[in-house]
Amino acid sequence: MATLLIVDDELSMRELLERVFRREGHTVHVADNGTRALQMVRDHVYDLVLSDVRMPGLTGTELLAECRHISPETMVILMTAFGTIENAREAFKLGADDFIQKPFDLDELKLVARNALEKSRLRKEVALLRRELNDRGRLENIIGRSRTMQDIFRMIETVATTTSTVLIIGESGTGKELVARAIHACSPRVKESFVSINCGAFAETLLESELFGYMKGAFTGAATNKKGLFEAANNGTIFLDEIGEMSLSMQVKLLRVLQERCIRRVGGTEEIPINIRVVAATNRNLEQMVEDGTFRKDLFFRVSVIPIILPPLRERREDIRELAAHFLQKYAKLAERPITTISEEALKYLENYDWPGNVRELESSIERAVALEPTSEIRPERLPESILKYNPAKVVSSFDLPNEGINLEGFIAELEKSYILQALRRTHGNQTRASELLKMSVRSLRHLLDKHKIRQTASMLRDNTPE
């Protein structure tokens, strides 16, 4: 049952409507003028306001305008003895949910009120569903108890309240889009759109029209005007995945959008302002690309205002069991299979494996095991052969010389760089602790950072750790 406010300067009408709606089971308040009703709207939350239009002082339409400002979710029905089609149009233009002309049939009025309250209920259900959908992108969907992941959770919650551009760095399969969605879900923009695009999945001309939209006739096949993803995400968040795959000319256009906060459709001349949060992601070394001249330095600084570096799964093995259990529950439910656990032996194999495909590969492996397992517990034999046959010691010692030879100096340099970055990630950018792991002096480590041109990456790893 709902709470209603009846507003009419005629006592007999107020008493009649109060009696009718109380019999319907509603809580009913009454006011004899618009000014009194306005104060009641400020003091209470009403599901429905049923108001006469012509009253001394504050009119029904003026009360409607105030209701829309004070309590936008309240439904408002206007009543008048001077109703015409033009009056009805004006009432709807002002934001009334319905309009009824006096004298009215009581059954008709009750039906109009029921319809308005049903519309209100449906609006609330839609809002609830939207919140539930948004919640799916929150931190609860990113699994990890390791210290590294806990630091990332705190970073997400901190940066979500800002409008700064975020760059998520990580190998393929580490969950970069999940982090982007969590930032959006924890932000004030949560009720607006989250739009995602993989920049590496489109040719340059197609990427431009996808991002910025186009005007009719801009190119062959452009039969209508079309909004781009930046416009679709206005007031919300746009996620530019694999930003390192953009061509240099597209990088120039994106830089302009980030600087000017406006876009221009392909074939158009109008500058369209946008209010948008940009989150970018890459699995490439953008700093090296800047050095190589394949990524603009000014764009790099613009997109990496706040960097978040996701560790590969092999560097947070303590999260493997929890992730595996999560995926088991997910796919057992989808497949309607009575599988509830993973055997200890199978878990040991999972923890031993190096996971080049990261969390995505783990998820695929559990999905496969669920499909093949006939019992209630996943056994090792249901895991992929690559996991069962993996031997870390063998991998380390199996540097076979290719028939075509090898650039030994370059290979050793990459190996050295890889271990330095692993040590820095493990110590959250603390160079003293990283040098201890690498059994070298801090001075030697700094020399290698300069040699491999990763001093800024080391700084980002340090800055990425919340206080």
Give the overall shape. elongated
SS field, number of helical segments: 21
Across the major sheet, the strand order is 2-1-3-4-5
Q: Please name the CATH topology of the largest domain.
A: Rossmann fold
**N- to C-terminal distance:** 50 Å
CATH superfamily of the largest domain: P-loop containing nucleotide triphosphate hydrolases
Q: How large is the radius of gyration?
A: 31 Å
Please report the total strand number as a whole number. 16
Question: What's the mean pLDDT score?
Answer: 87
Quickly give the CATH architecture of the largest domain.
3-Layer(aba) Sandwich
Describe the structure.
A 5-stranded parallel beta sheet has the order 2-1-3-4-5, with helices on both faces. A 5-stranded parallel beta sheet has the order 7-10-13-6-14. Helix 2 (34-43) runs parallel beside helix 3 (60-70), helix 18 (408-426) packs across helix 19 (431-437) and helix 19 (431-437) crosses helix 20. Helix 4 links the parallel strand 4 and strand 5 (98-101). The two termini are 50 Å apart. The chain is an alpha/beta fold and 467 residues long. The chain is built from 21 helices and 16 strands. The radius of gyration is 31 Å and the shape is elongated. It has helices at 11-23, 34-43, 60-70, 85-94, 106-135, 147-159, 176-185, 204-212, 229-232, 248-260, 286-292, 297-303, 320-335, 344-352, 358-372, 385-388, 392-397, 408-426, 431-437, 442-451, 455-463, and strands at 3-7, 27-31, 48-52, 75-80, 98-101, 166-169, 194-198, 213-214, 226-227, 237-241, 262-263, 272-273, 277-282, 306-309, 341-342, 377-378. The chain has 4 domains: 3-132, Response regulator (Rossmann fold, 3-Layer(aba) Sandwich), CATH 3.40.50; 139-311, P-loop containing nucleotide triphosphate hydrolases (Rossmann fold, 3-Layer(aba) Sandwich), CATH 3.40.50; 314-394, Helicase, Ruva Protein, domain 3 (Orthogonal Bundle); 401-463, Arc Repressor Mutant, subunit A (Orthogonal Bundle), CATH 1.10.10.
